[in-house]
């Protein structure tokens, strides 16, 4: 008979009851499980993150998708490109013609007429200036009245005004001629024709109407993330970011980034000082130097969707669960932030 404690000697029925072995095993498993869970909650670290979604954008405004617009009023006479064609800077895209086919001829004739008027005004003013010189000499000799001398000066002023008016008219004609002469729309930079407004070929287009959309080649890419305003106060340039690109297989554990697969590294480049219309703040993320390069342009193009996790402070798993259940903000540690900011300033 097994040894029984003295305080159970008065309870023979309780002593005689033996729990099933399965119950004992389950009890031990529960006790061990509770111990493991407690150890995990208070002993395992968890990296807090601020999650956001966004897209791939071009850092340089010249590298973003551009609209090629009409320069003059008219209609499209000819397209030089099709959707998807590669173009170089200066390559023709479309040729416009005015509704009046003889407009350029008349503008050139008007310019020739104005140029002749300028030549005549210049010659008349030269003659009038000679007349002023002769009148001044005759006035000094007392052969003419001062009124005649002043009349010759007035004629010079009139010719000068007519000459200035003719030159202004020539400038206006040149402006119109140059605008109408710029009827060939050209590519502003190297890139690929994304779409063409085919309807513009059959209708009247005005200056500024979109004829085609150009997507520049090989842009410098960054990621544009939209994050919650509750977390933006803790985000500053230099914060590490983990990125999952659309269409790229990835397994992410935000709290344990070391075991994630298919993720790419970045760092915060800038944070917008004001919120978007949706109430979210835009954070620009650039590639992290010295880490795995982002996928090529053929796999991750401009506009591709991205999900990102901005890495914050390290806490215990139990604290993170408690924070999530109470909907509290992320951990804020001013000394760590100040130390990292000073390190970045020294590095610059």
How does this model look, in words?
By secondary structure, the chain is an alpha+beta fold. The protein folds into 3 domains: 142 residues, Efflux pump adaptor protein, beta barrel domain (Elongation Factor Tu (Ef-tu), domain 3), CATH 2.40.30.170; 67 residues, RNA polymerase II/Efflux pump adaptor protein, barrel-sandwich hybrid domain (OB fold (Dihydrolipoamide Acetyltransferase, E2P)); 79 residues, Helix Hairpins. The protein is built from 6 helices and 13 strands. The strands form 3 sheets. The protein has a 6-stranded antiparallel β-barrel with strand order 1-9-12-11-10-13. Strands 2-8-7-4 form a 4-stranded antiparallel beta sheet, with no helix packed on it. Strands 3-5-6 form a 3-stranded antiparallel beta sheet, with no helix packed on it. The longest helix is centred in the middle third of the chain and has 39 residues. It starts with 11 loop residues before the first helix and ends with a helix. The model has no long low-confidence stretch (mean pLDDT 79). This is HlyD family efflux transporter periplasmic adaptor subunit. It comes from Sphingomonas qomolangmaensis. InterPro entries: BSH_CusB, MFP.
List keywords for this structure.
elongated, 3 domains, four-stranded antiparallel sheet, Elongation Factor Tu (Ef-tu), domain 3, 36% helix, six-stranded antiparallel beta barrel, 348 residues, alpha+beta, Helix Hairpins, OB fold (Dihydrolipoamide Acetyltransferase, E2P), single chain
């Amino acid at each position: 008979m097994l040894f029984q404690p003295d305080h159970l000697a008065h309870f023979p029925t309780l002593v005689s009851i033996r729990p099933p072995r399965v119950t004992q095993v389950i009890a031990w498993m529960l006790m061990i499980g509770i111990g493991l869970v407690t150890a995990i909650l208070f002993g395992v670290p968890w990296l807090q993150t601020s999650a956001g979604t966004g897209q791939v954008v071009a850092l340089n405004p010249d590298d973003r998708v551009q609209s090629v617009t009409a320069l003059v009023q008219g209609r499209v006479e000819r397209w030089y490109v099709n959707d998807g064609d590669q173009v170089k800077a200066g390559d023709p895209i479309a040729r416009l013609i005015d509704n009046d086919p003889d407009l350029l001829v008349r503008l050139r004739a008007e310019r020739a007429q104005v140029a002749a008027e300028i030549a005549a005004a210049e010659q008349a003013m030269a003659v009038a200036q000679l007349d002023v010189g002769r009148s001044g000499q005759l006035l000094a000799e007392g052969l003419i009245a001062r009124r005649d001398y002043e009349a010759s000066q007035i004629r010079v002023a009139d010719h000068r005004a007519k000459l200035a008016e003719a030159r202004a008219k020539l400038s206006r004609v040149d402006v119109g001629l140059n605008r109408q002469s710029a009827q060939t729309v050209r590519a502003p930079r190297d890139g690929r024709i994304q779409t063409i407004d085919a309807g513009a070929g059959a209708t009247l287009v005005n200056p500024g109407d979109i004829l085609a959309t150009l997507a520049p080649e090989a842009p410098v890419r960054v990621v544009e993330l939209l994050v919650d305003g509750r977390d933006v106060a803790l985000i500053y340039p230099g914060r590490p970011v983990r990125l999952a690109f659309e269409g790229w297989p990835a397994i992410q554990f935000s709290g344990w980034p070391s075991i994630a697969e298919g993720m790419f590294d970045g760092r915060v480049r800038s944070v917008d000082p004001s919120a978007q219309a949706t109430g979210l703040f835009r954070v620009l993320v650039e590639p992290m130097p010295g880490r795995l390069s982002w996928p090529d342009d053929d796999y991750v193009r401009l506009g591709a969707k991205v999900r990102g996790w901005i890495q914050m402070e390290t806490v215990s798993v139990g604290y993170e669960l408690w924070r999530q259940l109470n909907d509290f903000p992320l951990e804020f540690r001013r000394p760590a932030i100040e130390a990292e900011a000073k390190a970045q300033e020294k590095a610059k």
